Amino acid sequence: MAAIFQGVGAAAALSSLPSNSFDSNKSVFCSVRSFAAGTVILNPRRQRTQQVISNAVGTKAGGAAAPSSSKPGHELLLFEALLEGLEEEMERDPHVCVMGEDVGHYGGSYKVTKGLAKKFGDLRLLDTPIAENSFTGMAIGAAMTGLRTVVEGMNMGFLLLAFNQISNNCGMLHYTSGGQFTIPIVIRGPGGVGCQLGAEHSQHLESYFQSIPGIQMVACSTPYNAKGLMKAAIRSDNPVILFEHVLLYNLKERIPDEDYICNLEEAEMVRPGEHVTILTYSRMRYHVMQAVKTMVNKGYDPEVIDIRSLKPFDLYTIGNSIKKTHRVLIVEECVRNGGIGASLTAAITKNFNDYLDAPIVCLSSQDVPTPYARTLEEVTVVQPVQIVTAVDQLCQ
Fold first, then answer.
1. What are the start and end residues of each CATH 3.40.50.920 domain in the chain?
2. CA gap 301, 276 in Å, rounded
3. Which residues contact 359 (CB under 8 A, 6 or more apart)?
């Protein structure tokens, strides 16, 4: 292993650029104010907004959307957007390297690293044994030496084997070293309920990792924010967990040709509205938008926000929406007990309770292992009809 790090370090030394630099004239940083009460962010960096690209996929009833073929940019599937973002960062900064099972010549279990081993070599795309605790710990150690490591867990459920490394090392070393070390590591991989993948491959681990101090968590839901969040996470000096959903990899969208990154602490306004604030993320964004069609026909005008930043929450965007609508519906695929919705409910109650005209409603997955049978699997996850019913009750 020492030889591996010597080789990677030698490759990193070829660059004259500092690991945290980028050309602000060529970058698009989508940023607005965001904060989270009581949250400590390591090494905060503020970048001036050069250009803001609107990317909301939902429109109000009657709003005309431009055809995709007429928009500038290029079309990519979500996994291709992740790949493009990773490739661009590896080209920009030779300190960036990837570790995980089958990430090299096989190209990753969902092809997020396809072709990168041939382009960058085996030292920067390191195929590891099936030993999540070992290669995650190795990646954390590499990050301490100045590399920017990206760990693919193949499936988020497997990273439970590395929970000790993520908690006791990844999240704490900056603090326990008195600030002597930063841990610029990205831990990413697919999760969520797929199509009959069984209980062990259908877990919602954001509920596990949110309790670890010292890490950030984001969840991508579109090719646009998948690429932007990937690039931002790699450039961050904080340890970041990037959640991808197994059923969204083949989602297609047109994204800009120019370089851009997304704010790791910013929610996305998907659809502005007046009657109720719907907070969601990842795959549930699309269940919500499917339900919105029925809500509009019923006369409701919901505001949909993809919270995107799971830790810390963008309470600025969320709070402004609540002050306008006075009603909140949270829709998540995570389980209710100790889930993201529970933490979000607590944060809203603490900060915006005086603006609420109705109790917060949270729709979550059933607190059971995900069944293999397709019909039972669907029952455990929130469906659009349940979202419509909840809005009916909230707005009465």
1. 268-395
2. 7
3. none
Predicted structure pTM score: 0.81
84/384 Cα distance (integer angstroms)? 32
- Structure tokens of 296? 């509009």
Angle at 25 between CA 81 and CA 41, to 5 degrees: 70
Torsion on CA atoms 338, 191, 227, 209, rounded to nearest 10? 30
Q: Residues near 279 by Cβ (< 8 Å), separated by ≥ 6?
A: 305, 307, 318, 328, 329, 330, 331, 344
Q: What is the DSSP letter of 266?
A: -
Look up the CATH architecture of domain 268-395: 3-Layer(aba) Sandwich (3.40)
Q: Both tokens of residue 210?
A: 């949110």
Q: Which amino acid is at 293?
A: K
- Residue 393 has a CB neighbour count (10 Å cut-off) of 11
- For residue 190, list its beta bridge partners: 244
Catalytic sites, residue numbers? 132, 201
Q: How far is CA 331 from the centre of its chain?
A: 16
Q: What integer pLDDT is reported at residue 9 of this predicted model?
A: 43
CATH classification code of 2-53+72-262: 3.40.50.970
Cα separation, 273 vs 291, in Å, equals 14
DSSP string, 116-163: HHHHH-TTTEEE--S-HHHHHHHHHHHHHTT-EEEEE-SSGGGGGGGH
* 244 SS3 class: strand
Query: What region, left, alpha or beta, does residue 108 occupy, with left being phi > 0 and alpha being psi -120 to 50 degrees?
Result: left
Q: How far apart are CA 238 and CA 227, in angstroms?
A: 18
Average pLDDT per block of 10 residues along the chain, 396 residues long: 42 37 36 32 33 34 44 91 97 96 91 94 93 94 96 88 93 92 94 78 84 94 97 96 94 95 96 96 96 95 97 96 97 89 96 96 88 86 95 91
The answer to whether the beta carbons of residues 333 and 243 sit under 8 Å apart is no
- End-to-end CA distance of the chain: give it in Å, rounded: 63
Q: What residues does 125 pair with on adjacent strands? A: 98
Alpha-carbon distance 255 to 259, whole Å?
A: 10
Q: According to CATH, where is 3.40.50.970 located in the chain?
A: 2-53+72-262
